Amino acid sequence: MMEAPLLAIENLRTYFYSRAKRAFIRSVDGVSLHVGPGETLGIVGESGSGKSVTALSAAGLVSAAPGVIGGRIELHSHRARRNLLDGLERYVRVKEEDGRVMAVEKDNRGWRRRAEALMEGVRGKEIAMIFQNPRSALNPYSTIGTQLVEAIRLHTSLKGESEAKERAIHWLERVRIDSPRLRFDNFPFGMSGGMCQRAMIAMALSAEPSLLIADEPTTGLDATIQSRIVELLAELKAETGTATLLISHDIGVIRRLSDRVAVMYGGTVVETGRATQALAPQAQVRHPYTAALLASIPSTETIRRKSYLQAIEGEALDTIDVPRGCRFYGRCNRVTEAIRDRCAGVEPPLAEVAPGHKVRCWLYSSTPSSLNPAREPRQ
Amino acid sequence: MSSSILEVTDLRKHYSQRRGLVSVLTGQGRVIPAVDGVSFYLRENETVGLVGESGCGKTTIGRTVLRLTDPSSGRIVFDGRDITNLSRAELRPLRREMQMIFQDLDAGLNPKMRVHAILHEALTVYERPSDAAIASRIRELLEQVNLKDSKLANFPAELSGGEKRRVGIARVLAVRPRLIVADEPTSALDVSIQAQVVNLLRDLQKHLGLTYLFISHDLPVVELVSQKVAVMYLGRIVEMGLAESIAHQPRHPYTRILWSSLADKQNTEASLSGRGGATVERAARAWGVFDFEQPVNGCRFAPRCPLYQDKGRPAVCTDPASEPPLRDLGKGHAVACHFA
């Protein structure tokens, strides 16, 4: 029996309305994920795949309308289980026609009041976040120290000014900021991007959260700084054992830090499994999108032979006109005649191909018992 | 070296930054040496990659060699002609031979013009071809960059990132340039689209005989597309050589750190097991931010250099009189380090 997950997201749907296109964007369209205690789940995908919106939804930070419209987000911590979307379904009515969302009626005020009540004591405390571009996430008008002390006094039992300050300095040390006592009085603009990211990590972890959401924590930093932030996150993970939901488009980062991964495409999870399984260079069974994504990164072999990169043809799916069949069908190079009709007509289920390894592809779910492709595909 | 299309000698570009009333009045401000004595050349139909962290002067070099900004000193020779001090009017006919692809996907794409108008404008800047010639040239350009005809009627805002990049490239190709400075051409794009654009740029080079100065911080991509690579650190080239020797036998400690920090980006078993971080961690000890206000004493990498530490902080590294010059190691490989 598996340990109860700390965070379980079920069938999450988050939509936005595009005024320019007069249509609903189905950013997150039925995502189910779970993060176990002490585990790091990496979500990888390209822009528009819905990975960041999934994370923001989990933290209750989606404010644009209609936003989150359904699903369950269950948080299991301190022996209490709560659904952060509990009872919210009565505020929303979705009208769909032929796979296209025609209208979403949402009582946003009612929803927000209820959602904020459910989030009380959770956001920042139980679920802490670090973002891309740390400099804009920090308050430019107040010192790193002030911001850290504020977080500590708000979220932990340390309420006194001086003990909170000691704890803040302790955290600056733990994120390997040199001369933390001096840095305590620095403003964000006096610090480099890497240093700001460290300060933000300190701030997030100082609340001793059950779950850390790291949304593109290394994007926008220099290559050498990136790898040092990744090292820091790996060390802190080993030290604190905080469960982490890591979002990145950088497969290298995901691979280095994740225990399990979820690959997202067009608002859905197309593959999930242990990182060593799903992202192994020579894995036999994997979603064609994951395979193509891995192949489009220059490998040592490609560079040595100066060969062409295997690009994925076409553009990423916009999640307005979601096709009836597989969302990757239009770009997929592994469609065989045997499965073409199904690929074009029916969305494949996320089927288990090995213990803990699931792939959303008709190649692997032809018959329930078969773990191998229906027919060996030739490219 | 007769076939070199661009030759840059001891190029310098210093920006002065004046802050506050006193420095404005006295005319004294601090000087930021964005490019500080750089020499290199590009042969026809080859790609030279320029790598380094942000702020090291890569983009400034790109802009300066095209005379988009004026150099503080040094010499730029394009196709046998010294262009360092040419006036704007004298430069104009040369501009069509040397073009730039900017990092910003929207650069050069007027948001109020349709793709067709953008390309039309580019085709009529230097000459007045007939309408039929323009039409056939637009068709040719679309084909070259793999863009559908239907996109001609779109405004830039209606295009995806990859399509914007293709239009930007088509616009540059419209004037039939020989030298293209590509400044981070893929960094704003998603991985799968990056691969398309990298393939496209390589195809175009093959078919049109283009020469690229390829500026990027994406080391695997640079290694893939370039014949030669120059590694920059704070306004200077610290190592230069064939792409494979820079990647696989780097000599300068900075180059080593750069490449090892990327080891886990590559699609290998080694990265999966998490190896390859050790050198970075070792180097990380003194890895601060460089402060231009501190005077450079000797080697500018010394304050962050693991080799300097290992050698017991030799005096020569911080001797103000001896900044290490680019030392030729043979086979076109040169390194600016006393000990590498």
Describe this structure in words.
- The complex is a heterodimer of chains A (379) and B (340).
- Chain A has 379 residues and is an alpha/beta fold.
- Chain A has a domain at 281-359.
- In chain A, 31% of the residues lie in helices and 25% in strands.
- Chain A has helices spanning 51-58, 108-119, 134-137, 144-155, 161-174, 180-183, 193-206, 223-240, 251-257, 275-278, 288-295, 300-305, 340-345; strands spanning 7-18, 23-35, 40-44, 66-77, 80-83, 92-97, 100-106, 127-130, 211-215, 243-248, 260-265, 268-274, 351-354, 357-359.
- In chain A, the strands form 3 sheets. In chain A, strands 8-9-10-3-11-12-14-13 form an 8-stranded mixed sheet, sandwiched between helices. In chain A, strands 2-1-4-5 form a 4-stranded antiparallel sheet. A two-stranded antiparallel sheet of chain A has the order 6-7.
- In chain A, helix 4 (144-155) packs across helix 5.
- Chain B has 340 residues and is of the alpha/beta class.
- Chain B has one domain (4-97, 177-335): Rossmann fold (3-Layer(aba) Sandwich), CATH 3.40.50.300.
- Chain B has helices at 20-26, 58-65, 88-95, 115-123, 131-144, 161-173, 191-208, 219-225, 243-248, 253-261, 269-272, 278-284, 306-310, and strands spanning 4-17, 30-43, 47-51, 73-78, 81-82, 98-101, 179-183, 211-215, 228-233, 236-242, 327-328, 334-335.
- In chain B, helix 4 runs parallel beside helix 6 (161-173).
- The radius of gyration of chain B is 22 Å and the shape is globular.
- The model of chain B is unreliable at 266-290 (pLDDT under 50).
- The A-B interface holds A 46-47, 178, 192, 195, 222-228, 230-231, 234, 249-252, 255-256, 275-276, 279-281, 292-294, 296-300, 302-304, 306, 308-313, 315-316 and B 53-54, 160-163, 190-196, 198-199, 202, 217, 219-221, 223-224, 244, 247, 257-258, 261-262, 264-269, 271-272, 274, 277, 280-281, 284, 287-289.
Short summary:
The complex is a heterodimer of chains A (379) and B (340). With 379 residues, chain A is an alpha/beta fold.
